[in-house]
């Protein structure tokens, strides 16, 4: 590394270790606990959201730059669209609405 | 970090700032693209048409190796950008090459996994479940492949031109793309593999 190296990238290392830990925790919850299936799905889904937030904030620095707030609003809106598409499709196509006469 | 006191090189020009903002908006569109593939998968995952279900063909060990390869490559591309901001061309190059190798390792695992699926009688034409599965995984894998080619070409530019306002902004954008692929994989890992093996 060059002479003007700034400090060690702790935020990256912490994000990496947390990602590995959350992955292993999700595997543990999925295979080694006696929770009901819907509770397991809720827990591992929450862990996945935390991992995505780690990537966004600790690795991608979403709030960085002059347009940081625009990035955040754009990401929130995209996630909103994704949720509408996923849950809307499941609701309309698998909850019996498609088979009603 | 020096980035807190001075503007990083990749944000120096108005054009670079606009490119980075534009790429974030593109990533928003990518989120919507993958959400449609996830939606198709969740709708079709129980339609196995007499073929294998997820729990029959997923192998936890291989999936975990893929996950750790991609998580580590996301970390190394973060280290590459950290090196870039310290004007450390050699560090940037080494960490980006490490990222590419880990990405190639991921692709190797994924292609073997596809061959395993086909060997187990799950081709893209077997059922609604396998069609949605191969489309979702294949789209992600195609993104990884594109990322490897893209970053390789950027590294050629880096070697020739050094860390400039232009090369730094391009590599920064490529690193955003790479982290994004890891985000998509986290959801595939959780809602395709873990869910498929437990439910």
From TrEMBL, chain A:
Gene Ontology terms for molecular function: cytochrome bo3 ubiquinol oxidase activity; oxidoreductase activity, acting on diphenols and related substances as donors, oxygen as acceptor; proton transmembrane transporter activity
GO cellular component, one term: plasma membrane
EC number: 1.10.3.-
UniProt KW keywords: Cell membrane, Membrane, Oxidoreductase, Transmembrane, Transmembrane helix
Record flagged with keyword Membrane: yes
One Gene Ontology biological process: aerobic electron transport chain
Subcellular location, principal: membrane
Superkingdom of the organism of origin: Bacteria
Protein name: Quinol oxidase subunit 4
TrEMBL record, chain B:
PROSITE patterns: COX3
GO BP term (any one): aerobic electron transport chain
EC supergroup of this enzyme: oxidoreductase
Entries under InterPro entries matching the protein: Cyt_c/ubiquinol_Oxase_su3, Cyt_c_oxidase-like_su3, Cyt_c_oxidase_su3-like_sf, Cyt_c_oxidase_su3_a-hlx, QoxC, Ubiquinol_oxase_su3_dom
Residues annotated as transmembrane: 21-43, 63-81, 93-111, 131-159, 171-194
Record's catalysed reaction(s): 2 a quinol + O2 = 2 a quinone + 2 H2O
Membrane topology according to the record: Multi-pass membrane protein
Subcellular location(s) per record: Cell membrane
Superkingdom of source: Bacteria
Entry EC number(s): 1.10.3.-
A single MF term (Gene Ontology): cytochrome-c oxidase activity
GO cellular component: plasma membrane
Assigned keywords, A-Z: Cell membrane, Membrane, Oxidoreductase, Transmembrane, Transmembrane helix
Residues of the Heme-copper oxidase subunit III family profile domain: 1-197
Known role: Catalyzes quinol oxidation with the concomitant reduction of oxygen to water.
Recorded family membership: Belongs to the cytochrome c oxidase subunit 3 family.
PANTHER family membership: CYTOCHROME BO(3) UBIQUINOL OXIDASE SUBUNIT 3, CYTOCHROME C OXIDASE SUBUNIT III
Protein name stated in the entry: Quinol oxidase subunit 3
The organism of origin for this protein: Gracilibacillus kekensis
């Amino acid at each position: 590394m060059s002479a003007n190296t700034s400090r060690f990238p702790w935020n990256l290392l912490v994000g990496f270790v947390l990602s590995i830990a959350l992955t292993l925790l999700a595997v543990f919850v999925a295979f080694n606990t006696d929770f009901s299936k819907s509770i397991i799905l809720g827990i591992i889904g929450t862990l996945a959201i935390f991992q995505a937030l780690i990537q966004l904030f600790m690795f991608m620095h979403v709030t960085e730059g002059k347009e940081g707030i625009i990035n955040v609003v754009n990401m929130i809106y995209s996630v909103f669209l994704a949720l509408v598409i996923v849950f809307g499709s499941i609701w309309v196509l698998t909850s019996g609405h498609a088979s009603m006469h | 970090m020096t980035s807190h006191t001075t503007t990083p090189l990749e944000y120096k020009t108005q054009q670079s700032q606009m490119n980075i903002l534009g790429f974030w908006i593109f990533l928003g569109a990518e989120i919507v693209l993958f959400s449609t593939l996830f939606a198709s998968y969740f709708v079709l995952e129980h339609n196995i048409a007499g073929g294998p279900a997820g729990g029959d063909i997923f192998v936890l060990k291989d999936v975990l190796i893929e996950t750790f390869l991609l998580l580590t490559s996301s970390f190394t591309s973060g280290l590459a950008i950290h090196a870039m901001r310290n004007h450390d061309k050699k560090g940037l190059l080494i960490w980006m090459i490490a990222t590419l190798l880990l990405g190639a390792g991921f692709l190797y695992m994924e292609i073997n996994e596809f061959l395993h699926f086909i060997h187990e009688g799950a081709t893209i034409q077997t059922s609604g479940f396998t069609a949605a599965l191969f489309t979702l995984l294949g789209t992600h894998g195609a993104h990884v492949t594109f990322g490897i080619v893209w970053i390789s070409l950027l590294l050629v530019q880096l070697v020739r031109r050094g860390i400039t306002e232009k090369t730094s902004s391009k590599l920064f954008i490529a690193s955003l793309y790479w982290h994004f692929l890891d985000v998509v994989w986290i959801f595939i890992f959780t809602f395709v593999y873990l869910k498929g093996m437990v439910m």
